[in-house]
Q: What sequence folds into this?
């Protein structure tokens, strides 16, 4: 008797399954692991967005996967498609080339695809592209430099890991300072890393007797640069401009540190924008396809409080 | 070592070449650097280069013993990052109770030394007692420590409390008679390492184990104990390097110590230690470390070379330095 009851229940559950699966939509989120500060912040905001949306939309289910390299990310996405039957994928590609065909396979299966920050190698695969504005990041930084140094001057520039992102930023920066009298003494890769930028700045200080300002282009690199300047005891460097919006740096801007008068955002929370918009697209009739560009904003002492996120690790 | 004893005439020549190779490379680099930039030989630049070499240098001295005994440790970079994170967390946690000051710095140092010893012991235990390949064990622990520091830092950066940072800062930036502490500690570690390798029974045992562990065993050398000790010493030295590293920027993140293991191994090999074990030269390792840091320094001080090519230039010089001291034994 008992046996029959269990069988009946199991049968009912099996029959009910497909109906349930149609009602609950699964959104896959695939992002690089937290291997540096910015990615750490991005992971934090992704988790926050997922936690919040699971409460708001009971009919949505989220799968969050973090990958430490492109190959792992490809596996994650293939697994999501094969085993979780995702209706939508939010992906921040580790690298454009290797991720293009697996993401295309997801799009071909009929699922919605949202690409964040780094575009795919072939345009038109994604339904929604939430992008940071890298040339704009360089442009805002360059314009600030020009306004802070109206008489021109000599600067050194720190570049990130050699990538398209880095090239676009530097090109935007160079065109913004073009003809302003600001002279770039040297550029070197600090790899978005404190230790590397510390070493490079030490060497720049040995190489040049006078440096007016530094475009560190990243807040982690700015920390290394500041430590090297402090060690040298030199006072010819008037300020260091970082970028991204790390909370320690935003705090310095807010508190009026003369060496860090400003910062330029490249918000890791753009992943949250992408997840939220995808959820809206899945649950409502509001159109969300297209490209959504998140502009880089100049943070100064006046607006710094708005960009300080107490709980974020970044 | 063995060649010197069996074939005196030929060995004298090859030993000269082997010894001169790395020194020659170092001298050439110094001349090139001085010719390219007037500030290259300034006291500030020399201090910078030597201090920043200290982390890899201290670790590489320990790595010399591990490699001499026929082992390998890929985990040291991740281990350094993990220990740095741990040291910062412990100091931050004890700060309210102890207040900023030297007692707390000593607690941090003790944390680093204990963590380093334990980490080295774990590697050694898995390699000797559990008899797993050193490459596999340390590849595993490399991933474990890297993940642990990422987890401890929540993906971001672990930063030492600001008040504490000014207390601990002198460990990297100050020193005696204008010589900064990292340079002094590096020199001491190198001298002690050289003495142990040349004069102490342990150094000879390590070489014997790396050369042929069966023969060493029959010669009543406790092979497992020697191997275990090389990993424990390396762990302790990683702790020492971390004590020098944390004061510099007062932070640790998942990008701390990335590729330190390969730089340390490269320095050891450039210095004339054999990768397959059996022969080690601590002072050669020191020269290897200096060569690697000088390449970076010179590339930063000069224009004209695309920074994209830094890695290629480093690779060429590493290979050249090893070719210069190629053992003639292979031909005979």
A:
């Amino acid at each position: 008797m008992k046996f029959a009851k269990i069988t009946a229940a199991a049968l009912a559950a099996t029959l009910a399954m497909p109906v349930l699966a149609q009602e609950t939509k699964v959104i896959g989120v695939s992002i690089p692991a937290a291997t540096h500060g910015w990615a750490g912040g991005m992971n934090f905001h992704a988790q926050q967005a997922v936690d919040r949306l699971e409460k708001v939309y009971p009919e949505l289910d989220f799968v969050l996967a973090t990958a430490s390299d492109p190959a792992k990310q490809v596996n994650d996405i293939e697994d999501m498609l094969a085993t979780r039957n995702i209706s939508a994928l939010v992906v921040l590609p580790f690298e454009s080339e290797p991720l293009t065909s697996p993401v295309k396979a997801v799009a071909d299966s009929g699922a919605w695809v949202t690409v964040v920050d780094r575009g795919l190698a072939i345009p038109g695969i994604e339904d929604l592209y939430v992008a940071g504005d890298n040339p704009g990041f360089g442009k805002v930084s360059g314009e600030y430099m020009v306004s802070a140094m109206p008489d021109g001057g000599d600067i050194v520039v720190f570049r990130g890991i050699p990538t398209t992102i880095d090239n676009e930023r530097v090109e935007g920066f160079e065109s913004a300072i073009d003809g302003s009298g600001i002279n770039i003494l040297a550029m070197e890769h600090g790899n978005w890393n404190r230790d590397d930028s510390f070493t490079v700045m030490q060497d720049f200080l040995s190489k040049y007797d006078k440096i007016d300002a530094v475009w560190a282009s990243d807040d982690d690199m700015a920390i290394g640069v500041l430590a090297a300047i402090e060690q040298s005891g030199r006072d010819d460097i008037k300020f260091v401009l970082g970028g991204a919006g790390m909370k320690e740096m935003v705090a310095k801007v807010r508190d009026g540190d003369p060496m860090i008068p400003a910062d330029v955002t490249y918000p890791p929370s753009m992943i949250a924008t992408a997840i939220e918009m995808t959820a809206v697209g899945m649950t409502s009739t509001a159109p969300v396809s297209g490209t959504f560009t998140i502009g880089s904003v100049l943070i100064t002492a006046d607006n710094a409080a708005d960009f300080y996120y107490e709980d974020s690790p970044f | 070592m063995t060649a010197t004893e069996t074939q005196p005439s030929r060995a004298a020549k090859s030993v000269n070449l082997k010894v001169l190779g790395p020194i020659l490379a170092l001298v050439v680099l110094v001349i090139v650097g001085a010719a390219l930039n007037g500030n290259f030989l300034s006291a500030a630049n020399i201090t910078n280069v030597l201090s920043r070499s200290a982390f890899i240098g201290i670790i590489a001295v320990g790595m010399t013993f591990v490699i001499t005994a026929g082992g390998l440790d890929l985990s040291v970079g991740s281990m350094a990052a993990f220990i740095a994170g741990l040291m910062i967390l412990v100091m931050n946690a004890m700060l309210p109770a102890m207040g900023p000051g030297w007692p707390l710095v000593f607690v941090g140092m003790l944390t680093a030394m204990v963590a380093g010893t334990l980490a080295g012991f774990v590697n050694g235990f898995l390699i000797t007692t559990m008899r797993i390949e050193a490459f596999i064990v340390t590849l595993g622990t490399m991933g474990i420590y890297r993940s642990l520091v990422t987890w401890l830092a929540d993906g971001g950066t672990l930063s030492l409390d600001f008040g504490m940072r000014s207390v601990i800062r002198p460990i990297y930036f100050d020193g005696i008679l204008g010589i900064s502490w990292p340079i002094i500690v590096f020199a001491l570690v190198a001298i002690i390492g050289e003495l142990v390798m040349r004069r102490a029974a342990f150094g000879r045992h390590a070489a014997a184990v790396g050369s042929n562990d069966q023969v060493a065993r029959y010669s009543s050398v406790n092979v497992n104990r020697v191997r275990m000790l090389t990993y424990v010493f390396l762990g302790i030295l990683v702790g020492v390097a971390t004590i020098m590293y944390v004061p510099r920027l007062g932070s640790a993140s998942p990008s701390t110590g990335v590729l330190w293991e390969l730089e340390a191994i490269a320095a050891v090999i450039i210095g004339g230690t054999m990768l397959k074990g059996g022969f080690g030269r601590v002072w050669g390792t020191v020269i290897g470390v200096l060569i690697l840091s000088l390449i970076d320094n010179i590339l930063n001080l000069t224009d004209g070379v695309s920074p994209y090519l830094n890695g290629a230039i480093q690779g060429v010089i590493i290979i050249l330095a090893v070719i210069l001291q190629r053992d003639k034994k292979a031909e005979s």
Observations:
- The interface with chain A takes residues 37, 39-40, 42, 44-45, 48, 52, 150, 153-157, 159, 173, 248-249, 251, 253-256, 258, 296-297, 300-301, 303, 307-308, 310 of chain B (CB under 8 Å).
- The first strand of chain B starts at residue 158 and ends at 159.
- The radius of gyration of chain B is 20 Å.
